Amino acid sequence: MNDLTRTQLDCEKSLDELSDYLSRDRTPYDESIETCPECLNALEALERLGPLSRDLLAEDAAALPPLSDSWIGRIMTNIHREMRSGRSVPISHSDPHVTVTVTEGAIRALIRAAGDAVTGILVGRCELLGDLDTVDAPITVRVTASIAWGESVPGLADEVRVQVYRALAQHTQIRVVSVDVAIEDVHIAERGDAPSSEGERP
Amino acid sequence: MIVAMRARTGKTSPQSLTAAGDVILVARAIDGDSLAFETLIRRYAPIMRAYAARIVGSPAEADDVVQDSFFLAWQRLPDIRDGAAVRAWLMRIVSRQAFTHLRRRRADVPLPLATLSSTDSRQPEQVAVRNAQFSALSAALDRLPDDQRQCWLLREVAELSYREIAEELAISPASVRGKLARARASVGADMEAWR
Question: What is the model's pTM?
């Protein structure tokens, strides 16, 4: 609170009072404020300060020098030191002295790549449910995905399922018992990744 | 002998992930997809830099604060409750980091607040009015006490709820409401001088 905010309008209301009133979402209804043109003007001006602050920050952001690749690169380098690789999944090898493992993180990357390869699909979460530490244990794969606007959900979900099965069979020894695909978001396809039913887009 | 296998990343590049919504990007980043995280950085770093610069005063220091915020965000990402709310979540982190930075610096060497210029080279006439308004607001925000400025930015720019701000600052929602009312009145009075 300062001297200025205590300054009264000609109708004798102060900015403090009006700002409090706004903070209470204009309840309970105050007739002396709601019927006074000067108060209403001031309320409107005060209400504009929020949106104006957002615009100011957007303006600040636009005026800043663009992000440099080296700035982003520094973040990425630090992040790579802390990769979340998850469990190590054994892979059998003809030579018993050789231990081959593949990280859970690499398997998830494989699943994402297989799903993303389906036009109109962007994979989200990948979960491997089951005992990954044991060779041949049954594993359920659960995948969430976003679908491009205008694409058929059942068709693409099936395609993702097929591609994920195929990729896992080709590159790992995991015994996949099921692949569950949940479409949980919609995105607007970029050019080059356009849905087949172009005309149905808004 | 241990042989680690790395899956090839296929066709996915930051470019093709730009269409993905926040929920998908957050899910992938939690799973360890650094490209998804990079896409989030490119999406939200600009507003986070501006936000931090409002608090610490200098764009260069703001860039350091935002970088630290993203390291922290990567570590804490698995704790995020709602991927759709990642913007507000990141803004909370950058707000906290910026104020921590500010307190540390003030305890150290006091620096004069650098003025952020919001210059715009387009249509000088229309832009002039807007710029005058922006610089009045900018000065008014700079004059607010730290606690009010913090509440104001969390509410109006980070778009947190009263409850979230209260939780963030460990104060009561009623006191958040009070600080916001004070801030609004002060900024309004300052802007009045311009009008």
Answer: 0.84
